[in-house]
Design goal:
It is built from seven helices and eleven strands. With 282 residues, the protein is of the alpha+beta class. It folds into two domains: 2-64 and 189-270, no CATH class; 66-187, Four Helix Bundle (Hemerythrin (Met), subunit A). The strands form two sheets. The protein has a six-stranded mixed beta sheet with strand order 8-1-2-11-10-9. The chain has a five-stranded mixed beta sheet with strand order 3-6-7-5-4.
């Protein structure tokens, strides 16, 4: 069988090519309808057919990719502010002799611990985060150097070194925080995958992060659902209905999805086709 792979958060899912009608960029222009399903985003009128749109990130991860990305952007903003405070505290120690109680080892810094443990499939973001290591280590190592100079009554030399590092290492670090946030925000361009049951009319739309690639898979390559739980899926009843099995290629896993397992909301029976731009998470 021929499949198309899609990225949803840190997970890869597959759909049969025959189940896909088309894909389009998600612009948030859905009609909102009351519904108790948290993954239901609204309705898109497509080819004269009111088509319910579901956020696959919420179904698989219990959280939309938008929310995950927003939390990551906020975390980086918080860590940037912490390093501003760190440098201010060091300045007060050098200028006024105040005690300095901030982390001197970059790997013991809260951001450093996060940086070395964080995993992402976004290659551009990964490259930016890798560039943090040199200025982040250099900035933290500055504390011991400056405080030693002050102990040796070389305060002026410490002040000159501090100002030099502020205009170079510190500025570089601040720009990297900004670049990382921009990469997260700009890189996320979700799409709707319109699925079909008859090859002609849309059934439902699934919101995903991006299209990855296509592949051919034999039936005997699809493993049971029990193996999915071993790679981080907590399967609720709705999600379990959708999952047909796990496909392993090398060190990567992808989950085969059956979109027909999500049923159309009953209230679409009386739906009046009208798109609005006021609804949408993104």
């Amino acid at each position: 069988m021929d499949l198309i792979n899609f990225r949803v958060g840190q997970k890869t899912i597959s759909l049969k090519i025959l189940d896909i009608l088309l894909t389009e960029r998600y612009e948030g222009n859905l009609t909102s309808l009351p519904n108790g399903n948290p993954s239901f985003l609204g309705v898109k009128d497509y080819m004269g057919t009111p088509t319910p749109i579901f956020d696959l990130g919420i179904i698989l991860n219990n959280q939309s990719s938008y929310e995950i990305n927003s939390a990551l952007v906020e975390l980086l903003r918080t860590k940037e502010e912490e390093h501003k405070s760190w440098l201010h505290a060091l300045e007060k120690s050098v200028m006024k002799g105040h005690d300095f109680d901030k982390a001197r080892d970059a790997k013991q810094c809260a951001f450093g611990q996060w940086l070395y443990s964080f995993k992402t499939e976004n290659e551009d973001l990964k490259a930016i985060l890798h560039r943090f290591e040199e200025p982040h280590n250099r900035l933290h190592s500055l504390a011991d150097k400056l405080l030693l100079l002050c102990e040796q009554n070389k305060q002026q030399e410490a002040i000159v070194m501090l100002e030099k590092e502020r205009s170079t290492t510190y500025v570089k670090l601040m720009r990297l925080f900004e670049s990382a946030r921009e990469q997260i925000s700009l890189d996320h361009k979700p799409i709707i995958v319109f699925t079909t049951q008859d090859g002609h009319k849309p059934h439902i739309g699934l919101l995903v992060d991006q299209v990855e690639d296509n592949m051919h898979c034999e039936e005997n390559e699809i493993k049971s659902l029990s193996e999915i739980t071993n790679i981080g899926f907590e399967i609720d009843p709705q999600t379990k209905k959708m999952m047909q099995g796990l496909i392993k290629r090398g060190n990567t896993h992808t989950v085969l999805i059956d979109p027909s397992a999500i049923f159309r909301p009953e209230h679409l029976q009386g739906y009046e086709p009208e798109e609005t731009e006021s609804y949408g998470l993104f």
